[in-house]
């Protein structure tokens, strides 16, 4: 272990956007950083992969976070880079009961659209006014309160630096999205169905169990600037990889961390699947809390067993990749939510909709001219798919065929599109791809039963061991995990700044 090559100022476990954010910021400050990733590409659930000449996203996904007070804009500003991206508008189209609801970015246009489809004009205006207000405050406040949830007195005192007027949103932590809509006077049951499926893809929970404090940003993300990354989200992650490597850091893929052991001198030894060991005084884990129990021991293992036990409810996903002939309309939205009726129910699928992302027309880095790449995603129960045993392959094929059938019915243009490739993945696949325990993706679902303060924090009780990613505060989504990378960075800097060497 005296070999200098195996010693790093910081080792980041997992190359998701949370870990890559923290690694980039520490690299900028002179830390010698090593990022270890079990998969063959970085990015985790915010990435892309190649298959038979085409580039697929890890899942059907949208990208925001570059507007004022949002974490990806801050990351660009802090690193002095510009992530290659293209703005898209509208953000999404929702297909519900034969109607197409367009999620316009412009707030007034969206409110008029909602009124057009759901009626109750005054009530809709009241609800969305609250949602925009709460969302804007949450982005502003979360972007400057990096020591939340508070662990020590100084963390609590730092909260008093906020504008007292922003505290007016706190009561919305105790009111669900559904309760807030009811209080606004909305009675249209189709609107509540719309809310449930929109929240499920952004907050991992439905309107009756999502606090409005979190639900407002989840519902209004289409009203901020949405982006498309040419060539796939992997290109965004690789820009951060290049930044780290240019500053003396390293990112090793296909090198799974198999053990994290604490040494007497308050340093850590990281053991990997390549039979290598790395020594560091600072470990930042970007892998889910459920996985940490498997790679730790003693009191550290006990801590993560307790933390993981808080979150027994989490989603898996049934996803598909499709390559289809490009017969779609020129200005067709790149993101679609297809609502399913009771007659459309698919065994193994637990959401009431399919979410579809389509590659941009002319993006030849993802597909050859004349073809488009589609990613489809739906929520799925992990226990169901892991418990199928001999029926797994049969049901996977049946589910895939059912989804393609519904796509032909509900996605404009897809009926006439020749399919050149189609394949699917279940939570079992996801556990093998990105090594998340039981294939749980999307983070921890929001819940009315969990306090704002009852989140796994970035800092653990063990000196030098920190956390980021979608199973710690603030939770889901690319902006959320990027914010977690900032939060862990500031905690590290407050306690370990003197550990950076001069390189």
UniProtKB/TrEMBL annotation:
A GO molecular function held by the record: oxidoreductase activity
One BP term from GO: carotenoid metabolic process
Domain of life: Bacteria
Pfam families (alphabetical): Amino_oxidase (PF01593)
Start and end residues of each Amine oxidase domain: 17-487
Leader peptide range in chain numbering: none
Protein name (record): Amine oxidase domain-containing protein
Organism classification: Bacteria, Pseudomonadati, Balneolota, Balneolia, Balneolales
């Amino acid at each position: 272990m005296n070999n200098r090559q195996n010693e790093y100022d910081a080792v980041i476990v997992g190359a998701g956007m949370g870990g890559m954010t923290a690694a980039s910021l520490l690299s900028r400050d002179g830390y010698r950083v090593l990022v270890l990733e079990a998969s063959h590409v970085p990015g985790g659930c915010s990435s892309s992969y190649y298959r038979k000449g085409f580039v697929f996203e890890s899942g059907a996904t949208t990208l925001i976070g570059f507007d004022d007070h949002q974490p990806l804009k801050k990351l660009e500003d802090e690193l002095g880079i510009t992530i290659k991206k293209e703005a898209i508008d509208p953000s999404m189209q929702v297909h519900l009961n034969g109607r197409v609801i367009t999620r316009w970015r412009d707030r007034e246009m969206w409110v008029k659209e909602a009124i057009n489809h759901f009626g109750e004009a005054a009530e809709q205006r009241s609800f969305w006014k609250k949602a925009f207000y709460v969302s804007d405050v949450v982005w502003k406040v979360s972007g400057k309160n990096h020591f939340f949830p508070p662990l020590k007195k100084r963390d609590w005192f730092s909260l008093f630096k906020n504008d007292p007027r922003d505290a007016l949103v706190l009561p919305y932590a105790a009111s669900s999205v559904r309760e807030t809509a009811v209080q606004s006077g909305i009675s249209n049951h189709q609107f509540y169905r719309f809310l449930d499926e929109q929240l499920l893809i952004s907050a991992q929970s439905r309107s009756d169990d999502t606090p409005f404090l979190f639900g407002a940003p989840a519902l209004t993300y289409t009203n901020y600037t949405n982006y498309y990354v040419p060539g796939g989200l992997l290109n965004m992650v690789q820009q951060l990889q290049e930044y780290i490597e240019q500053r003396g850091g390293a990112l090793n893929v296909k090198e799974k961390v198999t053990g994290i052991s604490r040494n007497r001198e308050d340093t850590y030894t990281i053991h990997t699947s390549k039979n290598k060991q790395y020594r560091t005084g600072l470990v930042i884990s970007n892998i889910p809390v459920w996985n940490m129990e498997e790679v730790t021991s003693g009191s550290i293992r006990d801590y993560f067993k307790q933390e993981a036990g808080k979150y027994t409810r989490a989603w898996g996903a049934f996803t598909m990749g499709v390559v289809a002939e490009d017969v779609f309309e020129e200005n067709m939205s790149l993101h679609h939510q297809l609502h399913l009726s009771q007659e459309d129910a698919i065994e193994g699928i637990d959401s009431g909709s399919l979410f579809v992302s389509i590659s941009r027309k002319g993006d030849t880095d993802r597909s050859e001219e004349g073809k488009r790449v589609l990613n489809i995603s739906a929520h799925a129960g992990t226990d169901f798919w892991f418990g199928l045993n001999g029926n797994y392959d049969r049901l996977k094929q049946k589910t895939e065929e059912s989804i393609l059938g519904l796509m032909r019915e509900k996605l404009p243009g897809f009926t006439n599109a020749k399919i050149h490739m189609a394949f699917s993945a279940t939570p079992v696949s996801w556990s093998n791809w990105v090594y998340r325990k039981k294939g749980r993706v999307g983070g921890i679902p929001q819940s009315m039963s969990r306090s704002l303060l009852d989140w796994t924090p970035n800092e653990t009780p063990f000196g030098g061991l920190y956390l980021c990613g979608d199973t710690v505060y603030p939770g889901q989504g690319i902006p959320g995990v990027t914010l977690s990378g900032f939060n862990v960075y500031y905690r590290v800097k407050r306690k370990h700044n003197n550990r950076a060497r001069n390189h």
